[in-house]
TrEMBL record:
Function description: May be involved in recombinational repair of damaged DNA.
RecF/RecN/SMC N-terminal domain segment(s): 2-510
GO CC field: bacterial nucleoid
Domain of life: Bacteria
InterPro entries the UniProt entry points to: DNA_recomb/repair_RecN, P-loop_NTPase, RecF/RecN/SMC_N
Gene Ontology molecular functions: ATP binding
Organism: Myroides guanonis
SUPFAM superfamilies linked to this entry: P-loop containing nucleoside triphosphate hydrolases (SSF52540)
UniProt keyword terms in alphabetical order: ATP-binding, DNA damage, DNA repair, Nucleotide-binding
Name of the protein in question: DNA repair protein RecN
GO BP terms: DNA recombination; DNA repair; SOS response
Family under the similarity heading: Belongs to the RecN family.
Length: 550
């Protein structure tokens, strides 16, 4: 329940601190006194969007704070789900800064508006006149039936299964889309893969092939120059090695004369050994250089294949071609693997759909049991509200697809008078009838729901006399189960409250301010008397007001 409300710098309110009680509370005041401001402040605590124009003084921040006593309402799991610290007295605060920025806090922890909206749905229901249009909303009609049918636990399990079912359907759709794309490219990918596999590029060194090709392609040229080089080194007449030997023999004769001469001899000896080794190596290489046209052609073809593949795939190395080959292999495998994935997911979805249908049947059975209760209770309450001949027919039909509430579509048919045929509620009920039907529904829901607080904003518009008196009785009876506020202009309803608050405006030369006070018995008599007779309160109005209170 709403235990306390604090408002600072909001609309016409400078500062307001008010405590509230259990039971049935009345709020009255002249039109424009500020009742809508109170509702606007509470709306901010429900997570509605803030408006910078709501600041009374636009140089200071606006702060609205509500204290909600919730220890009897088993909301721990909701707080855990929303990742908020639970407190038996939970404090919700909204701040609007002069910059226009808005902040929200629950038990001093910052929260976003969607979290605040979800939390407030379990704390307070503000029912204004335009909300009667909700009765035309099929999801709201289903929610009413489910509240009476106690379907909440079944719906939680069902919705979790539906969430998984939709997720898997989405996965299946992505598999199929991916498969379609892969199939479009599969033939081409297969061709590219086969082309790369046939090239047998594993363990192939492009550098070695190119080197070998150069050797085979230049056999005659190499043989000619190797032969010439060998002849220069080993020629019978004046070869380099022969000349070197003669020089070595000459230097050997001078070795004993000086150490320096001995060094020259050693160096020329080393040179002779090196040149002889080079000449032998040239001779060996010359023997190996053999013309092999077939091998040359094979290497040429292999290199040409590599060059063509590199050009096609726009790469420069065999290693890059191997990476492309691996990628193509995976794509081809994926196309085949997707068939298995799609088949498995389709089978899984069939099982999940069967489970959902079983759950929907269980939900529907409880709804079918609840519908007669709802119809009878509506008829009973509406009879008290001046609609003795009102009747309802609520029908469930199969929906074409699974929804968050199951696989049912609902038709809420209504007839206000005897002899009138049934029609869709939203088409045949007048505004006044919709208001009374909504009050009846709220009264019924109070018996089944666990909502701490409800506020009725002028739900009595367009009614008077005995109907208004019965409306007051219904709201008072609701207050046995929850905290009820009624903003009203009717003395019959105002007299039913356990406590009575008045909204009024005060003005000075500079500003106008809205205030809210709790009336004592004498003030309450005067307020109800004024509601009866206007500003000029008569003695008979005072007596009538006191009689109403008694």
């Amino acid at each position: 329940m709403l235990r306390a409300l604090s408002i600072k710098n909001f609309a016409l309110i400078e500062t307001l601190d008010m405590d509230f009680s259990e039971g049935f509370s009345i709020i009255t005041g002249e039109t424009g006194a500020g009742k809508s401001i109170l509702l606007g402040a509470l709306g901010l605590l429900q997570g509605k969007r803030a408006d910078l124009g709501s600041l009374k003084n636009n140089t200071e921040k606006c702060v609205i704070e509500g204290h909600f006593v919730i220890d009897k309402y088993d909301l721990n799991s909701l707080f855990e789900q929303l990742d908020i610290d639970y407190e038996p007295t939970t404090i919700i605060r909204r701040e609007i800064l002069p910059s226009g920025k808005s902040r929200a806090f629950v038990n001093d922890s910052p929260v976003n508006l969607s979290t605040l909206q979800e939390l407030s749905m379990s704390l307070i229901d503000i029912h204004s006149q335009h909300q009667t249009q909700e009765l035309s909303d099929e999801s709201y009609q289903i929610a009413i039936i489910d509240a009476i049918a106690a379907n909440s636990k079944l719906l939680i399990v069902y919705q979790e299964q539906l969430k998984l079912f939709k997720k898997n359907k989405s996965v299946l759709k992505s598999y199929i889309e991916e498969q379609v794309e892969l199939l479009k490219e599969q033939d081409y990918n297969n061709f590219l893969l086969e082309e790369l596999e046939n090239a047998k590029l594993q363990n192939v060194s492009q550098e070695d092939l190119e080197s070998e090709y150069e050797k085979l392609n230049n056999v005659e040229f190499v043989k000619e120059h190797f032969s010439h080089s060998w002849a220069l080194l080993n020629g019978e007449h004046g070869g380099v090695i022969q000349s070197l030997k003669e020089a070595k023999a000459a230097l050997q004769k001078t070795m004993s004369i000086s150490k320096d001469y001995e060094g020259l001899f050693e160096r020329i000896s080393s040179s002779e050994i090196e040149l002889v080794d080079i000449a032998n190596e040239i001779e060996e290489q010359l023997e190996r250089v053999v013309l092999d046209p077939e091998q040359l052609q094979l290497i040429h073809e292999q290199l040409q294949l590599i060059y063509n593949l590199q050009k096609k795939h726009q790469v420069n190395t065999v290693a890059e071609l191997l990476v492309i080959e691996e990628g193509l292999s995976q794509k081809v495998f994926m196309a085949t693997d997707l068939d298995d994935k799609i088949e498995r997911m389709q089978k899984e979805l069939v099982v999940q759909e069967e489970q959902l249908l079983i759950q929907c049947i269980a939900i529907r059975e409880k709804r079918l049991e609840a519908i007669p209760k709802l119809q009878n209770q509506l008829i009973e309450i509406l009879s008290l509200l001046g609609m003795p001949n009102a009747t309802f027919k609520i029908e469930l039909k199969d929906a074409t697809a699974f929804t968050a509430s199951g696989k049912d579509e609902v038709e809420l048919l209504f007839s206000a008078n005897k002899g009138m045929s049934f029609g869709l509620l939203k088409k045949v009920a007048s505004g006044g009838e919709l208001s009374r039907i909504m009050l009846a529904i709220k009264a019924i829901l109070a018996r089944y729901s666990n909502l701490p607080t409800i506020i009725f904003d002028e739900i009595d518009t367009g009614v008077s006399g005995e109907v208004a008196d019965k409306m007051g009785d219904i709201m008072k009876e609701m207050s046995n189960r929850m905290q009820v506020f009624a903003i009203t202009h009717l003395p019959q309803i105002a007299s039913k409250g356990h406590q009575h608050y008045k909204v009024f405006k005060t003005s000075d030369d500079e500003t106008t301010t809205s205030q809210l006070i709790l009336l004592d018995r004498d003030s309450r008599i005067k307020e109800i008397a004024q509601m009866l007779s206007g500003k000029d309160i008569t003695e008979s109005a005072l007596q009538h007001a006191e009689a109403l209170l008694n």
